[in-house]
Every structure is written in structure tokens, then in C-alpha cells.
Amino acid sequence: MESLQLMQWRRQETISDRLRKWMESAPKWEAADNCSGLVKRFLQRTKSLERRLGAPLIVAILGGTGTGKSSLINAILGERVVREGNERPTTVEPILIIHSSIDPSSLGVDITSSEIGLNKRNDNCGVFDLSGIKIERRDNPILETMAIIDCPDPDTTENAELRESNLARLRSVLPICDLLIVTATQQKYRSRRVLDELSAAASGARLIFVQTRADVDRDIRDDWRNLLENDYDAGQIFFIDSLSAFRLQQEKGHLPKEFEEFRQLLTIGLNDESALRIRRANYYSLAEAVVSECCEEITEQWDAVSKLRDRISEERRRLGERMAERMRDELIRDRRLWESRLVGRVASQWGYSPFSVALRIYQGLGWFFSGALLFRARSPVQLAIWGTYAGIRSIKSWSKKRKSKKAAGNAAGNVVWNQWDEHRLREAALILTGFANDARAPIEHCDPNYVMNEAREAGNAYVVDISQELEGICDRLARKNNKWSRRLFYEILLVGMAFFILIRPAKNFFYDTLVEPQIKLLGTDFYLVSCFWMIIWCSILLGLFMFCIRSGLEKEIREASNSWQRLGALELFFATIEDETNKIINYRNELDIIRQRIATINQQAEKLDKRIGRKKHS
Questions:
Q1: Angle at 19 between CA 13 and CA 23, to 5 degrees
Q2: Is residue 422's pLDDT more than 50?
Q3: How many Cβ atoms are within 10 Å of 4's Cβ, its own excluded?
Q4: Would you give the end-to-end CA distance of the chain in angstroms?
Q5: Fold annotation for 55-270
Q6: Distance of CA 458 to CAs 146, 323, 412, 424, 567, Å?
Q7: Mean pLDDT value of segment 221-244
Q8: Where are the domains of the chain?
Q9: Are 182 and 62 in contact (CB under 8 A)?
Q10: pLDDT tens sequence across 233-270
């Protein structure tokens, strides 16, 4: 039977494993630190459950002073085991009542240590240190299926911080209990101290509520149920008189009807199978409780985390818009650079023809002047147009010749660094620091110097992305301007001008001087003037060609710049703090999955006797 119990228990250990892994994956976040502490306590507390699978249930009697706890125990066992009376409080120390054949260590209880308290645990074997507890051994058959603890009174004025106080002993006892019998009277059922201690212990135990002193008190069970309904499923609340039940049992050998029902629930109802279901239900109840507490911790700080994430996106969007605007303006302003690059590509695709020769001459002059501009480059725009690899290589070569100049990184990084607005970066960093502080997230990732280092990486990646965009634009415009209709237009006009200039000296030489000898040959000044007008004509055609290219490229740049504020390179801005927020989001999502898992498999409470109550969890 015990091996079957162990196999069933192993299957539910997946919840512990998932909670342990979830705890180990905790991000750097205040709420996560608090949740880790809760999970650790859960794992430590449930460690003793496996050890106690085959042991009797531990049943604790919890109630205020004078509620008849000791009398109830004597009535359940049918013999006087613990002292009872009008002394307040009667129970001054925990009393563990077990069968003579049972070893207390099998219950997960260590009574040999010199100190008391839940803080003194053997985490390797799941044994709770309960030194200071009194042991009563009996051969009573009822104790073969349960061990009973008579708890100290919780409504005491003692300081719980003192290890030897009754309240400290009580709090040491309650975590090992499987079932709590909560006693109350007409005067004591609203005791705040009892309700507080019950709330702290009830997550790991099933509950049976009992109103005692039925012979002298009026029935307050309905009012008591209303008091409990927000936090507990009370089950059946019994209304009994322990002293009368014990006296009838001793004198006549039978019990009052309701007490008999209560006793049968404890003796017959809590067999081995029921004990396993109770312990499994308690396990899931504890898991549900710790998950609920973790959810509360996370929810308390979640709004601040959401605001931090939104602010990261907002600051990134602002910087992206600013960068895209500056890139667009500089691309449009620095025409010589991109004109030279595009003309060269068109000329190479055009082949060799009169107008392509003119384009190549124009391109050669363009490369000469734009090359000089490159050595004055101070923005990623100029690097992007020249090509990332070639531009960075040239800048590095240039920087080696200018070693005296201070640098804040590599040469390409310096060029990119100057593009970002340092004031805006520092402002964004300070804003995010405030939001991160509110969210209790690591603020070191929002430090201005840290953000500026990310800006360097983002700038370099931004250059690569823009270069790829420009490559695509140049390819499209090159194909557009390489159409046969456009090529014939410029070639015919250029060849026509050349033909017009050449036909006059040919006519003068071959015809005019032969037919009319008085006509002189054209002089050098004619050829100079013709050359001049040829240059003017080429310039007009090149100007018209460049106008078409400029207008087309400017249109393409303006359209493309709308997407530049969303380039992937911008994700490098505030990437580390965003990664931390993503870890927090994943951390919460995993907790939701665990919570759903617990809700799905937590059917044990449905299989328990409906007369047994439990604590609710939000």
C-alpha cells in the first residue's frame, strides 16, 4: 500500500519541480525575490509530507482559551488523557498523543533538539524540530490511524518572538498538521487571534469546525459560518458537548448522536485511502496558496512594470523618429555622395555609348569630390551611402593617420556616436531610471553611460540597415533609368548634337572650299566654340538626367524614411533593461501556467468528505 501511495505522490511532485525551476529562473526583481522566499518555504514544508505518507494523520485541536480542547480530546479517545478544567489556559505546552507502537520520528517530528521553532529544520529529511512538545503514549485503537496534538491557546498575551512562549510553540506545531479541528464557543468564535493563527495554518490542512459547550451555549453556527464564508469552505459545523459525551461514554457506553457522527468522521472516515487524499489535497492547497501569494506579489508591482515597458517603447520611438528625420535630411542634403554612387551604377549597367561615356566622366568627377567629403564624414549617412564596409575601412585608415585626435571607441563608432543627440540620450536614460525604480527593476541598465554604449552599437547596426535600404533604392532606380526608351532619348539628343557640330566642318572642307575657293577653312576658334557648346549640351542632358534621378531618389528616400524609425537596429536601444522586463513577463506567464496546472489537477478536495472544510484561495 505504501509503495502505491509513493507512486501516486511522485506524480504530483511535478508541481514542486516546476515551482523550483520557476524560482531558479527568477529575474532581478523585488517581487521575484519575495516569491522565491515563498516557494522555498513551500518546498521545505512539503518535504516532510513524503516522509509521512504511511504514518497516521496528525490531527491538531486549535481553539481559544476555555473552548474545551482538552475535553474534546478525552471524549474522542474515550479516556482521560489530558488535563482539563476551568484553569485558563489549561494547555501550556503542545501535547502529542500517539499510539504506543508509533515512533514520533515517523511523523516527521524531532523532539530531541534543545531548541524549538520552525526555523530549526533538517531540510534533508523533512523533520520538524518540535523540542518542548510533551509526548503521551496510549494503546487506544483510535490512535492507530491518527496522532492528536493538543495545541497551546493562541489567544495569549505572550510574545511569539520568544522561543519558549506558548504562541511560538503553537506556530511550530501547526505546519506539520494534516487536519485541524477548530473549536469555538458562543463567546470565543469571533476571536481575532484564533482567526489569524487559523489563517496562517489552514492552507496546509483540512478543517473541521466544532462548536463546543452545547449544553450551556446557544447555537451560533449560522453566524459563525457567515463569519468564515469569505475565507473558508466550512463544511459541516458540529455542535457538541464534550463533557456530556465523555460522561455518557463512561457511564452508559454510548455517545450523543451528533458527537457519534463527529467521532465516526475521525475514526472510520479517515482510513488509509482518505489519509492519502487528505495529504494530497493539503499539498495542492499549499501549492495553490503559495501561487496565490506570488500572484499578489507580482500584481502589486505589475502596473509599474507595464509602464516601464511602455516607456521603453516610447523612448525608442522618439529616438527612432529623430534619427530617421536626421538621416532623411542629410541624405537629401548630401547629394554629391548618393548621386555619384547611383550614376556609377547606372553607367555600369548602360554599357558603352556616347551618353554613358559622359556619365562616366561625370561620375569620375563625382567620386573625386565625394571622396574628399568622406574624410570629413561626421554622420552615419555618409558612411551608409558609401557602403558600410568600405566606409568603415576608410575611416579606420584615416583615424590611424590622426592618432592625436581623441576617440571614444573605434572610428566608425565615433562617427555614429556624433549622430545621436547626447542630451536626448541622457534625458531618456534618466526617465527610464525613474520608471525602473518604480518597477523595482535593476536601474543599473538605465545608467546614462550604459545607454550611451548601447547607442554606439545601435548606431553601427543602424548604418548597416540603412546601407541595405539604400542598396535596394539604388538598384530600383538604376533599373528604372536603364530602360531602352530613356536610353534612346539621351543617346539621340547627344549624338544629334555631335552630328550637328561635325557636319559643318565636314561640309566646309569637302564642299565649300572646292566649289567656292574664296571660302576659307574653318579656324581653331570654330572648334573651340563647338567644344564649348558640346560641353554645354552635355551639361544640359546630364542636368536633365540628374534632375530625374534626384527627384526619384528624393521621393524614394522620403517614403523609405517612414520605416526607418522601426528598423531592427533600434531594438538595441535599452535592450538590456527591455530584456529584464521580458524576463519578468515570462516569469509571470510561467506562474500563470503553473496556476492553471494546479487548478486542473486539484480534484482531491472534491473526493473528500463534504463535511471537511478548507481554506479558500483567490
A1: 145
A2: yes
A3: 10
A4: 35
A5: Rossmann fold (3.40.50)
A6: 68, 11, 12, 15, 10
A7: 90
A8: 55-270, 303-482+556-592
A9: yes
A10: 888 999 999 888 888 888 877 888 888 898 888 888 77
